Amino acid sequence: MAFGSMVLLFGFLPLILLCYFLLPARWRGGRNAALLTGSLVFYAWGGVRLLPVLLASCVCNWALALLAAPGKPFFRRAALAAALVGNLGMLGYFKYTGFLLDNLNALELQITVPAIALPAGISFFTFQAIAYVVDVYRGTIPAERNLGKVMLFMAFFPQLLQGPILRYGDLGPSLTNRRETAADAAEGAVRFCFGLAKKVLLADALGQAADVAFAAGGHLTVALAWLGGIAYTLQLYFDFSGYTDMAIGLGRVFGFRLPENFNYPYIAKSASEFWRRWHMTLSFWFRDYVYIPLGGNRCSRGRQIANLLVVWMLTGLWHGSAWNFVLWGLYYAALLMGEKFLWGGVLERLPSAFRHLYALVLITIGWVLFRSASLSQVGEMVSAMLGFAPGGLWSGEAAYCLRQFAWEWALAIPTALPLKAWIQARLETRRAAGSRGAAVLLVWGPKVLAFALLGCSVVRILGAGVQSFLYFQF
Fold it and tell me: Is 279 a known active-site residue?
């Protein structure tokens, strides 16, 4: 079922909440079982024939982690190797077989490309599984003997399809010791409503503006190319961070504290800072399980460059099996190496406004590489952004995108900034000074606004439906 659909909002969620909270809080195993059952039903709703892939991943990684635990050196190494080969092999088969064979066929090998259905969320739960087994092998966490807990860790429905990418060391204790409270449930519900509004009211609308630009072809103008790039930049942020807000909010309702995945990435002043703020759990995963094991920064400059190229090639491929994703990964590798070894010192001495502009321009171009359907479209869009557009400078389509989505543009840009944090800090200062109005706004303002946004979101869903989340395809 679509995350944010009417079926989920008014069918699945009320049912699972009822089943969960009717069980006594002291019966932690029963509540975990209710959550696991609901999570598996949620996953099977999108295609029951792919459920065995998730179940096999859970069982195999649970068993291999038990063998990888300290104590038996031979079995440990063999279990770790089996986990890495099995997880990466499964991910490679489902996600990259078609890409590989298509490229071989481009060499006129004429290999039949099988139709392989991609299991939802496979990139996310596979990375969680790898992290779990590696952490057990390293002795960072003990192996979990309860299969149900490992399954719930990997299949927890709020974050199953698009993250955040969890670590068992962070979530494991909560499977036994968490405590659900009314205050946490209210805070989680507010966060969920804000995330839903980001997706339904902003991301889906801005996506239509981006589609106009990327479908323009020979009518593409400089203005339309930039508007399309900016629209997609905002669409992707509100789409992905909206899902993350919904996942974190639902997690809070059930007593879990899921990790943050975004920290206002568009206020970054460099590409390096952007990746410390965007999809943070993925960045930390590649840092801890790929970059540092390869040697990280504690090696020669040549080795550092090679490490960065490997990490960003893998990052690009993780996002999708197409050459534009590979190009996108190499693009960021080049930017990060440039900032690290060439112009980083100069950049730090420039005015803050220039550094913001520098980062935003490069980020927008990067998302154009990410969004484009082919390398030829990458060339068309980027050349148009640089001034070489077949349709000239301006067009009616550009004016349409500005007029038709005027209020989305007006809301999206300030919402992508830490406006909420600024307002909250101001109200906290006034409350500390004795303002009762500030105290009331701090308590009730988010709740009232969330309720209003939920109503607007439901109206929009009833009228236009909800589009699939962009990261769902990964």
Answer: no
